[in-house]
Specification:
globular; Oxidized Rhodanese, domain 1; alpha/beta; 106 residues; 5-stranded parallel beta sheet; single chain; disordered N terminus
């Protein structure tokens, strides 16, 4: 089943994530970029690269919101599509515009 960038996942705006972080909300933050990208710049997300996300599904919380991000929002959306299709996750949110948009609002 091919996965492409489509509007079939939940999204969260960078400003909404920043508010959740400031308020200490309960959520999990996952970075699906590659290790080198994560080491260069990150916003505190747990690193589970896209090519490991399906195998690493047990590391993903099913009981609270999970915000998944990448550089611009494409890989994170693909990750969500894969997790929803294979494991039925319903609590996943794509960071709209990725870390790029998040940092641009700082």
């Amino acid at each position: 089943m091919p996965f492409t960038y489509q509007e079939d996942v939940n999204h969260i705006l960078p400003a909404e994530l920043k508010k959740m972080m400031q308020e200490g909300g309960l959520f999990q933050l996952i970075d699906v970029r590659e290790t080198i990208e994560h080491e260069e710049k990150n916003i505190g997300g747990e690193l589970i690269p896209l090519n490991e996300i399906v195998a690493g599904y047990e590391r993903i919380d099913k009981d609270k919101p999970v915000i998944i991000y990448c550089k611009v929002g494409v890989r994170s959306q693909i990750a969500i599509q894969r997790l929803q299709a294979k494991y039925g996750f319903k609590n996943l949110y794509n960071l709209k515009g990725g870390i790029t948009a998040y940092l641009a609002e700082s």
